[in-house]
Amino acid sequence: GVSIAYTVAGNEEDPAVLMIMGLMASHKVWGEEIVNSLVDSGYRVILFDNRDTGNSEKLDRLGKPNLYWKFFVSSIGFNFSAPYTLLDMADDGVALLDHLQIDRAHVVGASMGGMIAQMTASNYPEKTKSLVSIMSSTGAPHLSQMSDSDEENFSNIEDIDVAGAEAYGFFPEAMPRQLTAIFKAGDRSNIIRKIKVPTLVQHGENDTLLPVDHGKHTAELIEDSQFKVYRDMGHNLPPDVLPLVVEDMIRFFKENE
């Protein structure tokens, strides 16, 4: 097993919301505003640090994959090994729900966290009351690629000031293993098609990392899902758009209580 750090906000008897953050990010990146809004609206919020981030176990013992090689191999469709998979990361969240004796939760994920949330909804429908997939993707090969400037930022990840990043809740050492999990998962369209729980897909109109067609494709594959696009939102949750994103999320939860 892997030890996972978590924190809980809100009343024990309120419906649970499991929040899953993205690549390299600890739960801190969600920010207090979103958590407080959910608690004030009558939800119990379960936040945790994905394996390799925050106060959860760092899996350096699993080695550091060569990203360029893994990316090349995955792009030509060959199979390869990964230190862990997106499903392993989904299992962490489900194990946490079991540990807290929570039968079912609304599952919310952003970016890579959205991919993990999709895996949770697909593989554990009995644990998933509803799914909210924010600025995420299906991994389908026909979708538009990240912009050149984003690609440049990604390749310079090794030069990041680690201590500075960690103060904001980002853990660059997780990058090679977590990205390999994403490469390994590849096109998840068939997994996403199996999702039958109520689903809300939220995406920023100005997202250059995962352009808006990634969100659109996610919504198209999930029967009866809702799709919301936000102006002035990129691959982030900007302070002026956040209240709207949260409001839509809460309204969606109330519809599916």
- List the helices and strands in order: EEHEHHEHEHHHHEHEH
Coarse structural class: alpha/beta
Number of helices: 10
Return the CATH architecture.
Answer: 3-Layer(aba) Sandwich
Describe the structure.
The protein has 257 residues and is α/β, with parallel strands linked by helices. It is 38% helix and 15% strand. It has a single domain (6-255), classed as Alpha/Beta hydrolase fold, catalytic domain (Rossmann fold, 3-Layer(aba) Sandwich). The protein has helices at 32-40, 67-75, 86-99, 112-123, 148-155, 162-167, 175-185, 189-193, 212-221, 242-255, and strands at 6-9, 16-20, 44-48, 105-110, 128-134, 199-204, 226-230. It has a seven-stranded mixed beta sheet with strand order 1-3-2-4-5-6-7, sandwiched between helices. α9 links the parallel β6 (199-204) and β7. α3 crosses α4 (112-123). The longest helix has 14 residues, at 86-99. The protein is globular, with a radius of gyration of 17 Å. The model has no long low-confidence stretch (mean pLDDT 90).
